[in-house]
Structures are given as structure tokens and as C-alpha cells.
Automatic annotation (TrEMBL):
Functional description taken from the UniProt entry: Has antibacterial activity.
Record-level GO cellular component terms: extracellular region
Chief place of localization: secreted
Domain Beta-defensin: 25-54
GO BP term, pick one: innate immune response
Protein's UniProt name: Beta-defensin
Record InterPro entries: Beta_defensin_dom (IPR025933)
Native source species: Puma concolor (Mountain lion)
Localization (cell): Secreted
Family: Belongs to the beta-defensin family.
Taxonomy of the source species: Eukaryota, Metazoa, Chordata, Craniata, Vertebrata
Keyword annotations from UniProtKB, A to Z: Antibiotic, Antimicrobial, Defensin, Disulfide bond, Secreted, Signal
Annotated signal sequence range: 1-19
């Protein structure tokens, strides 16, 4: 029983560090954490609390020199 309580305490204390890792990854990719991505966005990573890290897609413009 002590082992179970110890493992539970360790996992409970590590959860905020793990969540911060996901948010940091999203901000490093210059994305934003939302419930669902819009049409012009792409899912690039996961955030904490089941959120998605969405990044706006760059539009493909035609080359004006052609």
C-alpha cells in the first residue's frame, strides 16, 4: 500500500511539469492551444487538457512573374 501511495504522489507531482512541456512545444512552434482547429489551420502538436495546438497555414500565392 505504501508503494502505491508513493507512486501516486510522484505521478501527481509530475503532471504539471508534463503539461508545461506540451504548452512550451506549442509556443515554440508559434501555434495556439484550442479545442479544434479552423479550416485554415493545421494540427501540429497536442496541448494540455486535450487541447490541440493549431498553426495557421501559409497561403500559396501564384507567382506574379509567370
Amino acid at each position: 500500500m505504501r508503494t502505491f501511495l508513493f507512486l501516486f504522489a510522484v505521478l501527481f507531482l509530475l503532471a504539471p511539469a508534463r503539461n508545461a512541456f506540451f504548452d512550451e512545444k506549442c509556443s515554440r512552434l508559434q501555434g495556439r492551444c484550442v479545442n479544434s482547429c479552423q479550416k485554415n489551420e493545421e494540427l501540429v502538436a497536442l496541448c494540455q487538457k486535450s487541447l490541440k495546438c493549431c498553426l495557421t497555414l501559409q497561403p500559396c500565392w501564384k507567382n506574379t512573374n509567370d
